[in-house]
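Memo to structure team: turn this sequence into structure tokens by end of day. - J.P.
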Amino acid sequence: MLFSRPFSHFHFTERRTLSVLLGIIVVLLVSGSLHQKWTPKQLTFHIPEEVTNTPELRSRLLEARILLVEAHRKARRIQTRFWLRRILFDIDRHLSRTNKTDMAKYNRTKSLSIRLPEYCPEVRKPGDENQPDKPSIYETTKCEHQPLNEIVTFLINPETFQKGCDLATRIHSIHPYVSIIMATNESNALCGQNVHLYGIPNQISEVDIWYHMAQRVRTKYVLIGRNMVDFTEHTNVDRLIRVLNEQSLDIVGGAVRLEPEGLWSFGCYEVVMRNFTLRFRSGHDRSIQSCAFCDYIDSPFLVRRSFFLTHWQERMSHHVLSFVDLFLHLIHNATRYREVAVRGAQMVACVDVIFHVAGYYTFRDRGLSDTPRSIWLRLARKWTLSRIILPGNVELNWKCSEVNINCSSFTRPGYIVPFCCLQELGHCLVTFLRFASKNNLTTCLTTASLANMIKMSGTLAPWTQELELYWDVYQLKNFVHFARDTLNTSGQCVLSPVEYLTVGRDKNDQCVGQLHSTCLRYTIKSVGWKITLTGVTRLICTGGVHPTRVGILGHWVPTVWNPGLYLRKLYGDDVLIPFIHPSDDFVDPLLEEAGLNGSPDRPCRDTQPMHACLHRNFDLHGTLQFKDILAY
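Reply from structure team:
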């Protein structure tokens, strides 16, 4: 059964969704409307007809279905996805019940409508058994429907006027009466019937060109022919309209074929934006009718005119990678139901529809990985990103200063530390660890810094705000060489003047003579970060001939004999939870400095980017969710 697994084993989005579902089930049980059928192998619901006809309860079931669909998209485990599908099947079965009277009203309304359907159904016909090389075919049934030219307009922005006219001729060879709006620099030119020319004004961006062309459209749909150079019967526009309507989608694209090279690719990508990192990954997590759900689509696409104008208008002030920016906006412009984010737009690419686009030998051939770093930089600044990972393991990194990221803006509970800030902090820490290893400087890692390293398997936790290391104060002379010879002369890591912690301040000799005393400290400062290096007379990490050591960024640093027991005594049984909740009975004052009180339940300010917020992006439990965003 779905609920036979421990609740904590689910992904946090799944847990929130299932919590809402369980709440709905409880409401139905209390109302006496739900009869459960529990078996050892499955979970099914029997909901009486009066429940599905009750507006309030039906609304709750519809809400549960929305949440379950989103949980299914984000579920990592096959078993979880299986049971979510089973529950969705049961809910759909009950929601499909409609009162006969309402159905009769619906049929009468439908019969009175004079508007014809926009498409005809599609059927699959088997091939000839005597000719195995001829597979099954899909055919559109014959029905009365609206002509394509009354519902779709093609928008093209060709490289040259002649290439645009050639493309229009190819389109009209398949769809003779469809309207085409073509952007051109030619004045007083003609390009055939049903081809409307849009003269490009001086000093206008590509974003403006697409917007002004779409404004001239009077049909319900537009086909955005980005980079399109040819048109054949394999660009099945009827199929796109059918899928968009049957599945209630917003954008439908297809595969791409580079011309003239003939290189084919699906062009469907998953896009993840977390911790100031944008990651494109080829592939999909769900499909329907041979069309994959995508976060970004490489191809031209079909879209409702009103939808395109609404969302494209927001690109007008940001003339940078406009189509990438559009899809980023769509997948992050999510609606929230009871703390579960449900994306506001649905986009698919159909594998059987081919769009012929410009190949490698034109100036518009640039795919994601071929786009210059300088162009991506402008997008990174807009979305507050310091790293972009493109298909083919192409990784683009920028310093915080290059993308206008102020590290100090995120050094507070509830925020993820920017990747570029972690890199700067890690560089300073590694610089000190190398010096300590080379000069036999005895160091010790304890308290919250040790906890963070253990939780993140020796890497910097993305909520790290500062680190603290202890060292043997008797080796002060060796330590002085660190400031003089080792620190980065560029100023990225700066060692502050010594701070004496004794009563006499500068009477360090008196401190050295006392046991268990903290004598002095230095601070390594980076951009918005600091590493505290505290000199003490006795380190608790030096017990035994071979002290226990833990890994930090590739270096082994001494620590207490049993780190796990030490931390459990210090912080209680929540030691492996990434964030120790502020309401816990015992909270060490160092927790705030180490970032361990940055609970994901704390909301972020609206002025900060959504992907910088722990709230709603990360769970309270587990560290695997951070593995793809760690520095070093």
